């Protein structure tokens, strides 16, 4: 088991991470969710001994790894946010190059390269130079590099940022498959709550350096069990209608989208007739009014008053 104990990083006067406590059990997919600047990258950089903590500890099997990270490094594959590949080499050559850094040679190296190419779905593109790859293919190869030394655990720093939906799904499915077939432990950081919701057994939510929620999906959603989310849809949302919602004492929070307003209300409040009345008063035609199952986004909104992706 890996444990982060009161892990803290201060840059001058600012806490990038403050008293972070987390644990990751073998075989789990754990999500670290938070908006840009929450402290996710700093946290995982401390976990993988790339950044020295200001205070606190990281323990692997109950032993601190801060002073002697080598045993932990052997079992961990780090997938950085930035693509770290040689653009002028082919996919295969990149894997061969990084494999040699891990002391792989000869038949062992070519077998591993074949296996990794298969796992990331790039076997048929192995001879193509990386410069010609799409963003999603580069990200997949980046993941492949982290898997060359057969790690037991992958630490992935926002691995789907800026790629097409198809590649994104491929990466998510690959993570699920590695976990199911090889019991790979995964720490997955993201600011996309749908990804974390889809992938993870347990979730930690960070904001501004602080841990603001932790638990299973169900436990985290319990945080807002006293409230429910109602989605109101209309082709045209009138400003006066939104203002009336915001001023309504029954409604705790109003979030405005393009053709949808989401409101948080006490669980037992019956707001349907109220919403329809407000729409009529403001001359607005509604497409639908529905109760929604709360998402992690709703939890984040409830805890911070802000959307996860501003
Ligand atoms: N080397 C550094 N020097 C000074 N401040 C830093 C440094 N690295 C990070 N920070 C600050 O620490 C805070 C947390 O940054 P961090 O990159 O860990 O967040 P994040 O959640 O990973 O967000 P992102 O997705 O944007 O990388 C930010 O306010 C950032 O500006």
UniProtKB/TrEMBL annotation:
Question: Would I find Protein transport among this entry's keywords?
Answer: no
Q: Does this UniProt record's set of keywords contain Transport?
A: yes
ABC transporter domain: which residues? Answer: 2-233
Enumerate the UniProt keywords alphabetically: ATP-binding, Nucleotide-binding, Transport
Pfam families to which the protein is assigned, alphabetical: ABC_tran, DrrA1-3_C
Q: Transmembrane stretches, by residue range?
A: none
- Tell me one GO molecular function of this protein: ATP binding
Entry-linked InterPro entries: AAA+_ATPase, ABC_transporter-like_ATP-bd, ABC_transporter-like_CS, DrrA1/2-like_C, P-loop_NTPase
Top-level taxon in the UniProt lineage:
Bacteria
Give the SUPFAM superfamilies listed for this entry. P-loop containing nucleoside triphosphate hydrolases
Q: What is this protein called in UniProt?
A: ABC transporter ATP-binding protein
Instruction: Identify the taxonomic lineage of the organism of origin.
Output: Bacteria, Bacillati, Bacillota, Bacilli, Bacillales
